[in-house]
Structures are given as C-alpha cells and as structure tokens.
UniProtKB/TrEMBL annotation:
GO terms for cellular component: plasma membrane. This is ComE operon protein 3. GO terms for biological process: establishment of competence for transformation. Residues 501-685 form the Metallo-beta-lactamase domain.
Length: 738
C-alpha cells in the first residue's frame, strides 16, 4: 500500500517539472493503461499514471480558465463579489473578485484587482467595475520569483487595474473583515498590523522593512499563518488536556487521549476558519488531523504513514500547489524532523532535541532553498531557538485570547496590548540580528550539483557513526561554493534583465562587471532590490566595478539605491548628475572616455548640449572580439543626430532600443548608421506609453533587425564576442508559460 501511495505522490509531483502538458490523446490513454496494469505487480506504475493524469487534467483546467488573448489589455465593465481580505498598500487597494461576469465576454472565475487611489473595499461587497484586464504574466528572470506560476497556483485567471467603479451591494456577513478592523483599531503598541497577520493571515499591515527583517532572520513562517501556527495552537491544547490528566485535574469519566486529540483538532480547525482557510492552512489542518488520527488509532502503521497520506490528500485536492515553494519547504521540514528523531539509540534531552532540530532542519533545507532560488538566513537556526517559543507560548495565546475577548473591551484590548508589546520586543531583537547577519543569496548552481548536495544533506541528517556520513560536508558545500561559469577573455556576457517598464543590463567580462541602469522603483516595490540585486548575486559577483546610470528617470535609476546598498560599487557614472540623489555619489559621464577590461573596450558618449534628462542619457559602446553593442538609454532623435555629427562610432551588431522604442527615437538615419542585426527592447507588457511604437517596430523590421522584446521573451542573454544568437528566459519551456 505504501508503495502505491508513494507512486501516486510521484505522479502528482511530476507536474511541477513538465515543460508542457501532454496532448489530449495521451491524457485519455494514460488512465486506460493504468487500469490495465493495476492487477499486476506493476501496480505502482498504474498509481503513478493515475497521479500524473489527474495533475495534468487539473492544470489544463486552470490554464483554460485564463483570460482570452483577444481581451488582453482591453477595458471591460464587469460585476463581481469581493472575496478574501482586501489590502491597501501605498494607496493601492488590492482584492480578488470571485465569479465576475461581463456582457461582452466570458471571464475567468477569479480575477486579482488593483485600484490605485481607490475607496475602501470590504470582503463580501459586490462591485461594478471598469477594469483594464491582463492575462496572467510576470517578470521572467533566471532564478527569480515566478509571478505567473504563483498566479496559476492560486487559480487566478486574470489581473486588472480599475479605471472606474461603483458599489452595487454592501457586504452581508463580513465577520472576518470586522475582526480585522477591530484589531487594527486597538492599541497594540504599534504592532496592530502584525497581530492581524498572526490572527487572520492579513499581512498588509506589515511594512517592507518588517518583511526584510523576517526574511533576513529566517522567521517569515512566524507571521504567515501555516503549519507552524496550526501546530502550535494544537500542541498547546493537546498539552493542556494531557497536563490536566497528569495532574489528576481531568474528569476521570472522559478518556484524556481522545479528548486531547479532539480539542487539538477543533482548535486548529477554528483557527483555520479564522485565517480564511486558504491552501496552506488546509494543508496544515489535513496533516494535523492525520497525525492525531495516527496518535489515537494507527501508531502500529509507523510514523511515515500519516505524512505520506497527507501528501497525497493535499496533492489530490490541489495538484498546482507544487508551484508554491512553501509546499516543498513544509513537507520536507516535517520529513526531516521524522528522520532525525527516529532510529536513535538513546533519547535526547529536551534542550538537545530543540537545538538539534533547528540546526538539522537548516542543514536539510539548505540545498532546497538554493534550488528554489530563495535567500538563506545565516542567523535563522539561532534566532528560531528563541523566536518560536516566544511567539508560541506568549504572543499567539495572548493574541487569540484577546481577539476572542474583544466583546469585553477592557480585557480583550488589554491582552492585545500585551501581545503587541511582546511582538514589538520580538521585532526589535530580530532587527538587531538581521543587521548582524542579513540573508544570503547563493550563486547559480549547475544542475549536476543538486543531487550531490541533496545526498550530502541526507548523509548529515543520519545518526552519528554511520559509514560515509563525513562525506556529507563536502557534498553539501558544493551548493554553497559551486563551480562558476567563467567568461572568456575578450568576451562579455550581456544580460538584459526583465524589469518591466524600465532598463537594467548587467555586463560581465572575465574579471569585471558593469551594470547599465538599475531598473524602476514604484513606492516600496523596488526592482533594484527584487530583481537586479539577486541577479548580481546569482552571477557570483562580489562587487560592481561600475554602475552606469544613463539618466535620473525613475525607470532607469529607481533601483540604484538598493543596488548600491546591497553590493559594493567602485564607481557610479551618469549623464544626468544634477538630478541624481547625492547619496549615490555619482560622477558625470564624460564624452569620449574609453577603458579596457579583459581585452574588451568600453566607450562613453554624452550630448553636452542636452536640454533635459532623456537627451542627457550616457551612451555606452562595448566592443568584444570585433562584435559591438550600443546602449543608448532614452536618447531621442535630436541626441541621435548630435551623436552622428560628433563622429562617435555608432556601428554595432546589437542595439539597445532607444527610449524603449518610443516614437521620438530610432530615426531611420540613426538605424542605418548603426546597422545592427539585433535590437534589445526593454519594456513593460501593455505599458501606458504604448512602447514600442508600431512605426518604430516597422523601422526595425525594415532595417533587417531581429527583435528581442523583454515583454515577450523575458530576460535576454547575449554572449558578445562569440557571435552567437541571443538566449531568452521564456524560451526555457514551462507548462504555465504562454
């Protein structure tokens, strides 16, 4: 039976790694073949095929429910009811509509909406909205967070921005939103948002700085309701009943073990409903229920049985959950705990159990975190030793009890005030630890290293004295210090990152690195921090020799501060020094400056008579082994003409599209002088500026250029000096990508 359950789980998990879904005929054939194999000893293969078929059918259904391509970028009037807890962050109201309807088209069952400067929106309300709709999409960069996969895992078929709207029907029964408003209105010593996150799963009250502290210290799991919180509350209730029974205070006519299990499950279920009972909470409650059932009736089956059964139930309920990193981390953490506490020759003390559990979970999850391109907290194991009991034994009980007693304001608000103070103290300590040891983002790890590092982690989790265990250290360290791809002398690796409506291009020679522009920043959403800086670290770079900001506009220089803060920068150049923040200590780009790195020549040009920022863009020409690249920032036709009149050598094999393909740039004369065979366009999908302009696109085609558009292809890599074709991130096939 366990073999069949394992095979079923493997079939369901296979979905995550498919480049494309099987054709319909194969989906129909697989269950037929499985039924034929079922009576024989090959039944595990039958279970595998059943799991794979169900996962593919479920994924196909979610993909079919996405917004039609003809409606992408269109504005439609629609009606729908708000579900979940709306969030307001930096003046943007974000919420989700369930079963929206429109007279003009069929819409997906769920749409994620953003309303800039919109009015308060409450769960349960029904709205009529004019929404500019978009198909699910996101930035596509190597090793970065895949927003498109996250949307599919949530079964969100479209996103949209509200243009206008009116309330049709107020909320009928909005008890969760009412509790949230009550929590946010009490005095919790400045931590009202944190309590709302802990009690209801509403994380909109946590600032970007709070999230960074949690990430740096490996404590995100403390404020995101999942298995940790469900297990903590269930453990407290189970322990309370068990303690009363041990002290003789439990009614003798009630068996303590069934009562403890029922109390633990009922408390966890109630907490899950309070938190919205979303997929992570459903997973946690399912696992807890099976563990309690195993404790009560089926201990003879072994400890792996409830884990394997819970894994299958969760995957059968939602196969797309494998697209979410939290799924892998939660199940693997439980598996690691089961492994390290089983097969020991002697018992550990409670202190040994607690400290070794934190340490070994960190070791076991390290290669998985790097495989998922997630940051690794260096202080996490030590911090969690104190943070977990502080939250579980003090903050969580006070917060839940205070929320339950809000009907008695002096008592409920007093408990929440104490919980807020305890949480504020926790955050002060976490901030101190985060400053000492921020999270670490590992470099790119070759595919062949992963199985070796995973095997090394497994060896280190085994009991002491077993053969080959010391070999685990060098194998595990392979994922921390992996062999790095080197750039040949005389060549440049050019990576145009997918940053939406902006620009960021990373250039690496054998021993040097230059970043041309740093991407945009919109409020707390900093592309420099979220995309550019991780790309620099993933490339294994310890510093930037030059940060060249073409000009000071936010879509080019907005992420510069985060980059400067996150990695040492030897020199900052810009063509728009007058508008550049003083903390960047930028130098003015000079016309005709030339330097050589590893037999690669760099030259700059700037129009000294420029009237405004775009015209003042610092142009960079790069020549490697005779192959040339021209980076132009946002220059316009007048600047192009001035560059040609100055005699600057603009001929190039690759051209970065001036001003994202704006109509005011890319004149015919300029394109004729450049003579590029390929053009790199960096822009946001369905951007408000209409970039690139159709007239400019026709000029590129007329000039014989091969067009590489980040909105279509994602991040684009050119090996300058090798005379090779460009590589694109979206050409790496994933079944959820268009």
């Amino acid at each position: 039976m366990r073999t069949g359950m394992l095979a079923l789980a493997l079939g369901l998990l296979t979905l995550r790694f498919l480049p494309a879904l099987p054709p319909v005929w194969l989906l129909l054939a697989m269950p037929v073949v499985a039924l034929m194999l079922l009576p024989f000893r090959t039944y595990p293969l039958a279970f595998y095929l059943f799991g794979l078929t169900w996962a593919c059918v479920s994924a196909s259904s979610a993909l079919d429910d996405r917004l039609a391509e003809r409606l992408d970028g269109q504005t439609l009037w629609l009606e729908g009811r708000v579900v979940g807890l709306p969030q307001t962050i930096d003046g943007v109201v974000r919420f989700q509509l369930d079963d929206p309807v429109s007279r003009r088209a069929r819409l997906p069952e769920q749409i994620r909406i953003g309303w800039y400067g919109g009015p308060p929106v409450n769960s349960g309300e029904r709205w009529r909205l004019a929404v500019k709709l978009k198909r699910p999409s996101g930035l596509a960069n190597p090793g970065a967070f895949d927003y498109q996969a996250w949307l599919l895992a949530q079964r969100i078929g479209a996103t949209g921005t509200v243009v206008d709207g009116q309330l049709l029907e107020p909320a009928q029964d909005n008890w969760r939103d009412g509790i949230r408003q009550r929590l946010l209105s009490v005095d919790a010593q400045g931590r009202e948002g944190g309590l709302a996150a802990l009690v209801l799963g509403d994380d909109s009250g946590l600032s970007a700085a709070d999230w960074q502290v949690l990430q740096d210290t490996g404590t995100v799991h403390l404020l995101v309701i999942s298995g940790t919180h469900i297990g903590l509350l269930a453990g407290l209730l189970y322990g309370l009943v068990a303690g009363l029974a041990r002290w003789g205070a439990w009614p003798p006519f009630l068996p303590w073990l069934p009562s403890a299990c029922i109390a633990a499950f009922a408390g966890a279920l109630a907490y899950g409903v309070l938190a919205g009972f979303e997929v992570p909470v459903q997973r946690a409650v399912t696992m807890l229920g099976l563990v309690l059932l195993w404790r009560l009736r089926f201990r003879h089956l072994g400890a792996t049985w409830p884990l394997l059964l819970a894994l299958n139930l969760v995957l059968l309920a939602e196969p797309l959950i494998t697209l979410r990193p939290g799924f892998w981390l939660s199940f693997l953490a439980v598996a690691i705990l089961m492994l390290i506490f089983s097969g020991r020759l002697g018992p550990w003390s409670w202190l040994q159990s607690w400290t070794r559990a934190q340490w070994l979970i960190a070791v076991g999850l390290l290669p998985v975190l790097l495989m998922l391109s997630l940051p690794v907290s260096l202080s996490g194991p030590a911090v969690n030793l104190l943070a977990v009991p502080w939250l579980s034994l003090l903050i969580l009980p006070l917060a839940l009890l205070g929320t339950a007693l809000l009907a008695i304001p002096p008592l409920g608000e007093g408990l929440l005030w104490l919980a807020g103070g305890a949480m504020d103290g926790l955050f002060r300590w976490l901030t101190f630890m985060a400053d000492l040891a921020p999270a670490w983002t590992g470099p790119h790890v070759p595919l062949w290293v992963w199985p070796l590092s995973l095997f090394g982690a497994l060896l280190l989790l085994l009991p002491k004295g077993l053969p080959m265990r010391p070999l685990g250290w060098p194998l595990l360290l392979l994922c921390i210090f992996p062999p790095q791809k080197t750039v040949p002398v005389g060549q440049v690796e050019v990576l145009q990152l997918d940053v939406g409506q902006g620009l960021a291009i990373l250039l690496r020679t054998r021993n040097h690195a230059l970043l041309y522009d740093a991407g945009p920043r919109f409020g707390d959403f900093d592309i420099g921090e979220r995309v550019v800086l991780p790309a620099i670290r993933r490339a294994g770079l310890k510093q930037l020799d030059t940060l060249l900001l073409s000009h000071a506009d936010a879509d080019h220089a907005g992420g510069a501060a985060a980059v400067r803060k996150g990695v040492p920068v030897a020199r900052v150049l810009t063509g728009d020094v007058g508008r550049m923040p003083t903390e960047l200590s930028a130098e003015s780009c000079r016309n005709g400056e030339t330097w050589t790195w590893d037999e690669v020549t760099f030259s700059t040009w700037i129009w000294e008579q420029a009237d405004e920022g775009n015209q003042a863009s610092c142009v960079l020409s790069v020549e490697a082994n005779g192959e040339r690249l021209l980076l132009t920032g946002d220059i316009d036709v007048a600047a192009e003409r001035a560059m040609l009149d100055d005699g600057f050598n603009v001929s190039a094999h690759w051209l970065q599209s001036p001003h994202h393909g704006s109509r005011s740039s890319s004149s015919r004369g300029f394109l004729r002088a450049v003579g590029a065979r390929g053009v790199l366009i960096s822009r946001g999908r369905n951007n408000a500026f209409g970039h690139p302009h159709p007239l400019v696109m026709s000029r590129y085609t007329w000039s014989g250029m091969e067009i590489h558009d980040s909105a279509v292809l994602g991040a684009i890599t050119v090996q300058l000096g090798a005379y090779e074709k460009a590589l694109a991130e979206r050409r790496t096939r994933r079944f959820w990508r268009d």
